[in-house]
Amino acid sequence: MPAAHEPIHEIIRAYRAAILAKDVEGFVDLYAPHVRVFDTWGVWSYEGRPAWREMVRGWFASLGDERVGVDLSDLQIAVATESAVVTAIVTYSGVSAEGDVLRSMQNRVTWVLAREGARWRIVHEHTSAPVGFDDGKVILQR
Amino acid sequence: MPAAHEPIHEIIRAYRAAILAKDVEGFVDLYAPHVRVFDTWGVWSYEGRPAWREMVRGWFASLGDERVGVDLSDLQIAVATESAVVTAIVTYSGVSAEGDVLRSMQNRVTWVLAREGARWRIVHEHTSAPVGFDDGKVILQR
User: Fold this and answer.
1) Rounded to two decimals, what is the model's pTM?
2) Domain span including residue B44
3) In this complex, do A139 and B42 lie within 8 Å of one another by their Cβ atoms?
4) In B, which residues are within 8 Å of A58 by CB distance?
5) What residues in B contact A42, CB-CB < 8 Å?
6) Is residue A140 part of a domain?
């Protein structure tokens, strides 16, 4: 793994850990104050960290005693001096309190990161899943 | 407008012009050979220009004597030395041979561009529209 990629993998690990722990502030801290998020579900755009925090708070609160595991595949990372771009297929798995996988769905994810001094934050996130031409329904498994 | 943004606006103009003219090669020339496209419709990922060319060829061929107009709003551009990121809401309008707007739909678009010597090309495109939580149907108007 190129050394330049290490801080990016660190962000990915922190993203997985924050979701697994339902840690709202740990999650939101991965994002820059002026982040723009194009999310898969229901809303055209979240502009800024406060709007994104509200989404995340509602998501984590909705999970009850379930947890969510995150796995990335087809990962591509491009790192420059001050910015980086990550694209991947992401699988979100709902896991019961007993550790059983109850359901899973896949998304495409694009992350744009910017370096702020010693650390990196996500300045743009775009998640989606493709939509069927004929029925306009989202396709959540590749 | 910052001078650094001018080559990016040039790409956007060329994107609109190639779609309006249904110019397959002009369109594909805006993309880097190893482009990765996460498109709104039906397919998880197009990997590389040949795969993307086939999609575009089919799209333009399906239009008959209609043409497609492209408008961007909520545009954000970030340019670094060798890369740039564009996010926006894009409206695609189907226009009849007589000039009447027959239909339109909106998408979110993310473009990542890289500089190759004097010119810029799109190395990653992600388009999507949000999906309704309750019915899983794509929402094509903001």
Assistant:
1) 0.97
2) 3-128
3) yes
4) none
5) 130-133, 139
6) no
